[in-house]
């Protein structure tokens, strides 16, 4: 693979498939070729190719690939929340549904201050979650509730986000 890349092969070329098309990166993820996937990411393969049903973050979360998930988050920190229209879920929801606890932890850890309050992606993930992943989501939620009063003092502009959310009612 490295030889082909070094020779100038198009690492983002789309190969027709039953899903509408796959790139080499998506094929590597689908078939568990993690070293190949890491090489492709390092060489600049697009994790979100146009005109393809799947994306790399969704597949990494679905398969439970923690290292690939971490690599993708470095370049695309908000990618855990994007809904995959073909699969009708987010990377977080599919990781939770498949009970990939470590991937769920990685995706939740990546959340920004803006996301500490209600987020549709987290609610969706919780509703679909298998037991162990649901526990991880609840633990993260409890941690957020404990931090909320201090965060609201430090970042008063987030009060409007917090009002009338599940976390808000938990503090009342």
From TrEMBL:
InterPro entries per the record?
A: Ankyrin_rpt (IPR002110), Ankyrin_rpt-contain_sf (IPR036770)
Which regions are annotated as ANK repeats? 20-46
What residue range is the signal peptide?
Answer: none
- What SUPFAM superfamilies would the database entry show? Ankyrin repeat
Determine the domain of life of the protein's source. Answer: Bacteria
Key word Repeat present: yes
> Which UniProt key words apply to this protein?
ANK repeat, Repeat
**What PANTHER family would the database entry show?**
ANKYRIN REPEAT AND PROTEIN KINASE DOMAIN-CONTAINING PROTEIN, ANKYRIN REPEAT-CONTAINING PROTEIN-RELATED
What name does UniProt use for this protein? Fem-1 homolog b, partial
Q: Which organism is it from?
A: Vecturithrix granuli
């Amino acid at each position: 693979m490295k030889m082909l890349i070094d020779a100038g092969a198009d690492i983002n070329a789309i190969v027709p498939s039953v899903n509408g098309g796959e790139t080499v990166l998506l094929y590597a993820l689908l078939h568990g070729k993690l070293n190949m996937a890491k090489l492709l990411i390092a060489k600049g393969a697009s994790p979100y190719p146009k005109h393809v049903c799947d994306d790399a973050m969704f597949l990494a979360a679905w398969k439970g690939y923690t290292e690939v998930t971490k690599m993708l988050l470095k370049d695309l920190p908000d990618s855990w929340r994007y809904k995959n229209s073909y699969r009708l879920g987010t990377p977080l929801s599919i990781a939770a549904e498949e009970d990939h606890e470590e991937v769920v932890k990685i995706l939740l850890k990546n959340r920004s201050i803006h996301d500490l309050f209600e987020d549709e992606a987290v609610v969706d993930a919780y509703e679909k979650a298998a037991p162990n992943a649901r526990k991880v989501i609840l633990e993260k939620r409890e941690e957020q509730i404990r931090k909320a009063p201090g965060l609201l003092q430090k970042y008063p502009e987030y009060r409007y986000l917090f009002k009338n959310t599940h976390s808000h009612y938990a503090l009342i």
